[in-house]
Amino acid sequence: MDHLLPARPAWRPPDADADAHVDVCVVVPVYDEQAALERSIRRLHAFLSDGFPFTWRIVVADNASTDATPLVARRLAAQLPGVVHLRLERKGRGLALREAWSAGDARVLSYMDVDLSTDLRALLPLVAPLLSGHSDVAIGSRLAHGAHVVRGPKRELISRSYNTILHAALRVRFTDAQCGFKAVTREAAARLLPQIRDDGWFFDTELLVLAGRDGLRIHEVPVDWVDDPDSRVDIVHTAVEDLKGVARLAFAAPIVRFAAVGVLSTIAYALLFLALRGPLGAGGANALALALTAVANTAANRRLTFGVQGRTGVLRQHAAGAIVFAITLGLTAGALDVLHAVAPGASRIAEVAVLVVAGLAATVTRYVALKTWVFAAARRAPVAAVAPAPVAARARAEARG
């Protein structure tokens, strides 16, 4: 079947100049869906053509199908206005979404599963808050109040268990990570796509977790959903990969990185304090050791915890970090004074122990200050545009000439 495929990916907007005027891009990722593809795309096309109040485009994102799916997709693109075909040579649902979303210029980028298990009437409530500026990400939820779901007990148990794990491990607030019915604004995609590492089924979860960590507004739409009995998803393999992804995101959480930086800073501080205690005394050693480690701590958290790179604003951020350092200095100096008042002959080990405890008490204040004040503006800085993904960029270049 490969010899029947086009020499280059088929993705190119029907009218590139009009691409910026499209409100909603609906991506349908497919893999070996020759049987269901035409029926589903024609149904979706008819729904959008029959009074959908925004301009739209349908992208069939074929990620390395080995059956007649690309032939069907090309035929649909030729017959139905507003339908285009993107051919990828590597599998991965997340990869298909990354490529299609990166290439399009619609105001809202969405996707739905090819089986159309979600009632299409939920599409307007999904995209409207994004087009109005109310939200940044919108998801269909089968677990939200008001949803109506028809599926077997096995899938119901797996879905609820997975979302329970997400809430426990990642402290997320959304109710349904895996429903194949989502949308993001162009600006949100610009922020999130460069951060997402997964190109498979975990792409959805990672998108939502990162959106929450970036402070983006997530809107949930209760959906009517009917399970597809012909689904060929390998549930066990997908579950294992999802759990690996959850573990990766848990260890990559800002609070975990902040804690790791804090542990190293505390060790460095304790060693510096002991080295300086003799010539400078307890107070001087505390102040200098804190000052040295505070600079390193701010720099490390800037890059590792809050993902701020480049030199823009670095002086202001370190100046703000110095104010936070002053708070920590006040707490630790006060703790030393109390210790020496209670036990004038306290050992250096006792001094270090009290200072570490006082430093830990100041850690919560430091984290909140760094997140909401020192690095808040840098983390909210908008990204101008999503860099076109390799496949889509090559397809556009080839299509032009």
Account of the protein in words:
With 401 residues, this protein is an alpha/beta fold. The protein folds into two domains: 267 residues, Spore Coat Polysaccharide Biosynthesis Protein SpsA, Chain A; 127 residues, no CATH class. 55% of the residues lie in helices and 12% in strands. The chain is built from 13 helices and nine strands. β2, α2 and β3 form a beta-alpha-beta unit. The N terminus and C terminus are likely disordered.
Describe what is shown at a glance:
The protein is built from 13 helices and nine strands. It is of the alpha/beta class. Helix 1 links the parallel strand 1 and strand 2 (56-63).
Give me some keywords for this one.
Spore Coat Polysaccharide Biosynthesis Protein SpsA, Chain A, disordered C terminus, disordered N terminus, alpha/beta, elongated, 401 residues, 7-stranded mixed beta sheet, 2 domains, two-stranded parallel ribbon
Beginning-to-end CA distance, first to last residue:
27 Å
- Report the CATH architecture of the largest domain: Alpha-Beta Complex
CATH superfamily of the largest domain: Spore Coat Polysaccharide Biosynthesis Protein SpsA, Chain A
Number of strands: 9
- The helix count comes to 13
**Broad structural category:** alpha/beta
CATH fold call of the largest domain: Spore Coat Polysaccharide Biosynthesis Protein SpsA, Chain A
- Assembly level: single chain
- Give the domain tally: 2
Largest sheet: 7 strands, mixed
Mean pLDDT: 81
Shape verdict:
elongated
**CATH class identity of the largest domain:** Alpha Beta
Helical proportion? Answer: 55-70%
> Beta-sheet strand percentage?
5-15%
Q: Which sequence of strands runs across the widest sheet? A: 3-2-1-4-7-5-8
* Rg: 26 Å
